[in-house]
Amino acid sequence: MTDQVLTFRGGPIFDGADLRDDCALRLENGVVAALDRDDKLATKGEEIDLAGDILAPAFVDLQVNGGGGVMFNDAQTVETLQVMAKAHATTGTAALLPTLITDTPDRTRAAIDAVARAIDEKLPGIIGIHLEGPHLSVARKGAHDPSLIRPMTDADIAVLLDAANRLANVMLTVAPENVRDDQISALAAAGVIVSLGHTDASFDRCMSAFDAGASCATHLFNAMSQLGNREPGLVGAV
Fold this sequence. Notes:
Layout: E1 5-9, E2 13-14, E3 19-20, E4 23-28, E5 31-37, E6 46-49, E7 59-64, E8 66-67, E9 70-71, H1 78-89, E10 93-101, H2 105-120, E11 129-132, H3 154-166, E12 170-174, H4 181-189, E13 193-196, H5 203-212, E14 216-217, H6 233-237
Parallel strand pairs: 1-6, 7-10, 10-11, 11-12, 12-13, 13-14
Antiparallel strand pairs: 1-4, 2-3, 4-5, 8-9
Helix pairs in contact: 2-3
């Protein structure tokens, strides 16, 4: 196999902590091999002139409902994912979780299948799926269809566990009102990233969900009760 060597010069380079001028960055087969003063890195492989632009690590976006004029809820296809990923790449997002908001079981399964196919086809940017709902709180539904919001069932668990076996990253946003702690534990044990959101649950209920395996919150402060002096809610639990 021929080694691929890329050297970037001619612009500020962000190293994760500082923005460095007069530096060059070398990648060998996609891995950083050197970051040093420009005059210390000899010409090797392909040279890329940044022309004054900043070189920095790309974004990873965990909640992407659409992009490029399409929405994942409208069409759960590889073609939709391709348009979304391409659109977000133009603004610096190199990896994303296409997000299906509360919908029918059939569309949920279709979304999982589409993401699995996209990953099998090595579609750039698609690294898993985020299912935001349908196990949310109607009181904090936001843009979600209340007629589709419901408690989690054994059938839902089976679909999610299958998705976790097929995909490297499965994120699920739930409200503790509509999911039990044992369900959260089963999903977390299978590698599902369980996030809390769209909820009016109490501080104690949220802490119990975190103890069970939930590990983050979705759009903190938005679509949930706010921090109160007597009831901190999800915000306080986080």
